[in-house]
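tool_log.txt
---
The assistant was asked to compare two proteins side by side. It first ran the structure predictor on the initial sequence, then on the second. Raw inputs and outputs are pasted verbatim so the downstream comparison step can read them without reformatting.
(1)
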Amino acid sequence: MDFLEIVIYPFLFAAIYFQAFLLVTFLSRPAVMMRERPASSKTPTVAMVVPCWNEEKTVRGTVESLLALEYPKDRLQIYLVNDGSTDGTRAVMDSFENNPQITVIHKENGGKHTAINLALEKAHDAEFIGCLDADSFVAPDALREIISCFDDERVAAATPAMSVHAPRNVIERMQQAEFVLGIMVRHTLAAVNGLYVTPGPFSLYRRSVILSLGGFSYGHQTEDMEMALRIQKAGYRIDSAPRARVYTKAPRSVPALVKQRTRWTSGFLRNMTREYRSLVGNPRHGALGVIVLPLGFLAIIGGLMTFATLVYHLTKATIEAFTLTAGVPLSYTISTWIPNFEADGLLSLPVTVFMAMSMTAMIGAIAFIIVGKRISKTPGELFVGIFAYLFFYSLISPFWLLRSVRDVALNTKRGWRA
């Protein structure tokens, strides 16, 4: 087995293994019962928190989508928390202060977790507390769909079906395909209690549990991941509502996407290697400990190794092309210290095996995206997004993977939007 086989085959195998695990779990009875679960007819008291920092352009639409929820007005309270915004956010929030459903709070900037905790303290009568980012919008039936997850007393949190709001360019459509894939993955992993993040857009929590766990914390700028890990460590369950649709604004450019994903990935690495490293590989936490979290690490390593291999071959080809063009007899020297991958490397890999594994992983991803769209009833077409996800995502992701690993290794701190 040569160098390229050692690098590529194990990661392809891990990807296919994870897809097979998802497929088997998706077809299992617990997952089927979750999909068949009807929207709840119960109406417990709910407090929805909209933490906001400089979101004057989107927060009005966010609040209006909450007011349009098909839920009794006297059972739903909305807390708008202005976390020290410096734009026109305060004025937009104040325009809702006469609405009896809405409580407007202004505070000094302290981070998203402090904004949520402030509302958590004030929502004395709420049985459940949710969070909706100020650039996200919920479908009218979303709350009734997600409330149904809490019929099981062991469930401390539930996640929605998150997709991109009005995707237009290729980057947004790529993320739309990724998010719809995420709907299927979260739904499936919830059947085996394998979720390690409760996304900011419209995740719902049992308030008594969050209070008993001490409220939200900074969590290395990933408070939703940190809380989910704390819930799992305490022995509770996290469910998923695949028809509780929420639409969120997504980065529109590659630099903005890299910034966002750097925060997500570095938060994962910091949480996993510090406060919650005891979860990784721990059989007491079932699929989360022995499959999901270890494969999360493996995905990061695989992405970096595949990128390094690509750079290596591009560099080698460039050097050889330059030496041949220049007529400098350096090519012989190069061939003595660079392995001849044309003879015994990538081009000589068993095409049937390599291509079969690659195509299996690709077809599996496409199938799961289609399934995610179907079970969530997410509107819109996905053709362009699927194409972009399959062929562009792997070219962009190494940039945030490299940046994240560097930040963690050097303990570099970045701003929320840096």
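(2)
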Amino acid sequence: MRPLSGAALAVVDSQTRAGDFVFNGQRPLVAFTQLKAKLDAASDTSGWVLHDIRRTARSLMSRAGVPSDVAEQCLGHVLPGIRQVYDRHKYIDEKRIAFEKLAALIGQIVDPQPNVVPIRGQG
């Protein structure tokens, strides 16, 4: 299970539902080639692969202070070595916090706010 951040839930909730699945209504998304081509055209970008999104998310989680074990599990990776045998905790709450931190950092990057606030009565 991977919990969604509030920002991701807002995107999902804003989609029109025509069936059991959110983004195409009738079946799970499995082929991303056509969707990526549409995204490239709509955003006027090229030269990237879908795996770049995972790499960027993982790097941003480090930047946001998400513990490495949790960030790796957010990407679907297992704990290293013998730990995966003994640690059966699902880290759901930890993943939820990680995705909220990631969403907050992306929000700061996409919509930076000035870090100087005028003193009341000034400016």
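---
observation on (2): The mean pLDDT is 89. The chain is about 50% helix and 0% strand.
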